[in-house]
Specification:
Helix content is about 30%, strand content about 40%. The protein starts with 7 loop residues before the first helix and ends with a strand.
């Protein structure tokens, strides 16, 4: 899927589309905690500028959040790589638990939707950096060969900064 990196709307549309389409699995972490990022599945609410995550109350991530913290969600698929930044808070929203509950989520919570360890994280998205590569493997090989032959850098796509709030 080709996306013009200079078209902010197209890049944002593509970002949200890919997260929803591909199941939204990426890496989530707090920016100043010193903890490693953790694999999480994202549930996107684009209109609200939010991403929701199921998690357990006893994780390092939950313990470090406190009243709220700055976080990043890193997502990659095919020719798109993104890092979304925003604020992360605990939010045990029953309506969203019901909305996003599925067999995969249920496998992690033996007590079901009322499991005492179940909670949600809400990320209020602020901005994102998105990289989109163009042309596939053939273009990649060509650009690498050309760059080495001409002592220049390859042209494989570009980067966009998105304001998400």
């Amino acid at each position: 899927m080709s996306t013009d990196i200079n078209d902010q709307t197209a890049v944002q549309d593509r970002l949200w589309h890919e997260i929803k389409k591909r199941g939204g699995t990426g890496m989530l972490g707090l920016t100043n905690s010193g903890q490693h990022f953790q694999p999480m599945t994202a549930f996107v609410e684009r209109e609200a500028g939010q991403i929701w995550f199921f998690t357990r109350k006893d994780t390092d991530l939950v313990q470090d959040i406190g009243a709220g913290a700055s976080a990043m969600f890193v997502f990659q698929v095919d020719d798109l790589q993104a890092c979304i930044g925003g604020g992360l808070t605990l939010d045990h929203d029953k309506a969203r638990i019901d909305k996003y509950w599925n067999a995969v989520v249920a496998a992690w919570y033996p007590g079901g939707k009322d499991d005492p360890m179940l909670t949600l994280l809400r990320m209020d998205c602020v901005d994102a950096e998105v990289w989109i590569s163009q042309g596939g493997l053939t273009k990649f090989a060509w650009e690498i060969a050309k760059a080495n032959a001409t002592h220049t850098t390859p042209d494989l796509g570009g980067r966009a900064h998105l304001d998400l709030h």
